[in-house]
Design brief:
With 205 residues, the protein is of the alpha/beta class. The protein has seven helices and six strands. It has a six-stranded mixed beta sheet with strand order 1-3-2-4-5-6, sandwiched between helices. Helix 6 links the parallel strand 5 and strand 6.
Amino acid sequence: MLRFPIFGSLLLAGLLLLAPAAQAARTILVFGDSLSAGYGIRQDASWPALLAKRLQEKKLDYSVVNASISGETSAGGRTRIAEALNKYSPQVVIIALGANDGLRGLPLAQLRANLSAMVGSAQKNKAQVLLVGQRIPPNYGAYATAFEKTFGAVAKAHQAALVDFLLAGVATKPQLFQADNLHPTAAAQPLLLDNVWQGLAPLLE
């Protein structure tokens, strides 16, 4: 039976500015947790850093601000998104939060309300939104199923773009995780970027 690596709830926090917003006409704001913060690997190997490189290679005039914080929950993201929107005035916001909510078994109504509030705030600020789905191990039972469906429901309600699962193609491959069996390795980051890119690319056209 394949293992399903568990997403850790971490207390470490950080903010990475991948490319100064002043250097590009438009900004993409990445708003996630440790899975997007590049925990345990070089920052220039994280998927948001790889995103910045891909945009440059494709000559797309966007900079990337990674405002992901390890251990962040949807509630934490909700409290700080207004400040981030005001500071960076992004044209696109990638919201990749919720995994820590699921692992803690927090009420799904709360998760949905927080995600909805963040998506709504970004849209009110004239930003396009890409909501990145998360999943938790199947041993969480019916809660895991309902958790997974929450992201699609929020995206549909707000007519926002959706990526079904950030760790698609990675979650069932232990060799793509660090020794803690919680966080993807540098080798996994291009796969995470490809997953995000499927939903992001249409927003950049």
